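[Q] Does anyone have a clean structure-token version of this?
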Amino acid sequence: MNKNLVRQWINVLLVIATIVVNALANIIPFNGKNTGAISDQFHVYFVPAGYVFAIWGLIYIGLMTFGVYQALPAQREIPRLRSVDGFFILASLANILWLFLWHFEQFVGTLAVMLVLLAALIAIYMRLGIGKTKVSKTETWLVRVPFSIYLGWITVATIANVTEVLDYLKWNGFGIAPEAWMLIILGVVFIIATLMNLTRRDIAYAMVILWALLGIVVRQSGVVLVANATRWTAAAVAVTLAIGLFLPKALFSPKKP
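[A] Here you go.
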């Protein structure tokens, strides 16, 4: 049997498994707690309002479009798509394992697995050449946009996971106030988003960051310093996105893969 055909179907099965396990984690729920309820146990600022997590629905749709598109016979021998297969398998397994660790409150383990998921998605993003090479509109919408959204959210989720694990470990923040640490975290988010905006001109990725930041503003509205700082960070990210979009295309030298 053609090895690429096998890899195509493995990807399809992993998309299904990822969606099913994520659904069951909250329907059953695993260990008697849903995902959001566990997150609410932590006293950290870098967590958005509950409605923001609806973005997972969009991520699942994106995973399904990728799964179907890459499984088509015409895509079987495309080197660009086949080059991400191994990393997609790793990302899917990490996503599933993270849920079990999270629900059974193995929080240090969740951070290790989240970092693996982040690394796998970064590898996929780089190999697809998002923001650096030109592909068809079909591939852009069915493959690249889904992975931009996925990576954007996991970027946010990784930062949140770090803050939650540190809270779980009772870290004292070197005596620095939590509000001050939040300002530092927002600075890191701004740097990451700015680099992406100016080097990749990736609207989908930037919109996910903005979606998360605005959700934090809503959740932390009672903490004026945090809410205002997050609001200004969101505005700054939007400005850098606009700057990136209007810079001459020659600076990015996109070319056919």
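[Q] Thanks! Anything notable?
[A] The first helix runs from residue 3 to 27.
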